[in-house]
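Exercise 7. Given the components listed, write out the predicted structure of the assembled complex. Treat all entries as one system.
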Amino acid sequence: MERHQPPPSLWPVGFAVGIVCLLVGLVVSWPAAAIGAGLAAVFGFLWARDVVRVRAGEAPLSADEEPSLVPALPEQPGERYPRNTFLEGATLGLGAVIGAVVTLPVLGFAVLPAFKGQKQHEVDLGPIGNFPEGQYVVAVFLRDPVQGDITRRAAFIRNNGLLKGVPSFTCISNRCAHVGCPVQPGGPVFEDKTKNVKTANGNVMLVPALPAAGFICPCHGGTYDQEGNRIAGPPVRGLDRYEFLIRNGHLVLGNLYSVAKVTGTGANAMIYKDELHGPGQHVDGPEAWLYPLQPPH
Amino acid sequence: MEQVALYPIDWLEERSGLVGGVKYFLFRKVPGDSDWFHTLGSATLTAFLVQLVTGVILAMYYKPGTTTAHASIEHIQHQVTLGWLVRGMHKWGASVFIILMFLHMGRVFLFGAYKYPRELNWIIGVLLLATGLFEGLTGYLLPFDQTSYWASVVAININGTAPFVGPYLASLLRGGAEIGPDTLSRFYSIHMLLVPGALIGLITLHLYLVVRLGVSSPPWSDEAAGGTPEPEPPPAQAGLVQPRPRGASLRGRPTE
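Answer.
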């Protein structure tokens, strides 16, 4: 089955580079995507033109091949490009365009939520007075009251007093950095002293706790100290923290971020901050090179 | 009397050829020394069909949605007639399906039935395994109770630890940065539509290859090694059960 192959050319390589650039650009930056699309279009056109040219100049079918259903039109003088080849190309091309126009938006609908930055929700935890100094409080809240219970989260909040005249808080997320189980305080939780505070985020439950042994994850035994540093178990880094601000005397939690390590304690802690990583993803050490890019959070 | 029974079948066969196809599939030849291990594939297929049927019935009562899912499962379990039975069959059938798949895979491997010309069938089998496991993963979230939720959190986060694409894969599975209502809908659609479609397609291909390539003998087979000569097929009889020469097995020899 001898088929006439087009001679080797660089157009497919350029096309492939263009596609790769387009896909990477979709993730990293729009200019790269535009360059990629341009490269792919140009090289794709050149490649297609080459293939069509070669097919138009094909050797006649050998005797043992099946005769084609449509007899080849005799070339008229001055006609370089037979009509049936054009029709074939046009049908395939138009079909491809229609297919793309139908498929790509649908695929985008399924895939793009992974790439869109979702609005992070501020959480109003109530007046600062509810957080006694030096004591950990487990705060349970809804990050988005409209979505309801599925956005229920917990955080370990400690009032560190004032640092240079500004209130300082330690706000640690209870999501374990191993595979995402909810971490528990390593000590008594005083549920009878629970306070329910009505805020703009609905009902916030504040429960004092005494995590003398730090924070322990019940799933696989990951253990963290009182600043969220990992001290034992399978987690690959310490607990994530919440950014916070004080607005009208209320403690308001902001975005989550990941932490490489924390030195010192309380108000004087030095937090080595990083972009929010998912559980199981390293933020320092050689393994951090495995996770160079994060989708927008 | 027999004519009355055969008439509709002949009517169908004359107009479509389907009956001939079914007979070809059901009465094809297999090695004489096939044993019980060769039943594992059909057992897996049966488990899958049970899952299909019970799944369709459950879908008539299940309401996907973070606030309604668990309540609808309670409804199925306690109020719907025999709902507890259908749900139980589906839940346990899932484990049966996975276990049988592994046993079938082990049998094929230990019998060397993946060798030429059956390599493509093995590859399709591996794809079936991966797809079947993914079906189990997406189905696990649907009851949306504590076990479901946290198991899915962990599974998605484990996917997230894959190098380079991990964070994006996790985001894709979740439908965003956090597990939310979109996650449940996404998993439901994948579990109901995408993966069953893929499974049905792959199983059809898998079965087609089995019929085309034939069943191979066990490794200890005397016949296949050319020992005992093949016995003469019985003479043609009246009725549906006709040994068809077209369906002869390969007996370890490659196809022409």
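Discussion: The mean pLDDT of chain A is 86. Chain A touches chain B through 31 residues (CB under 8 Å).
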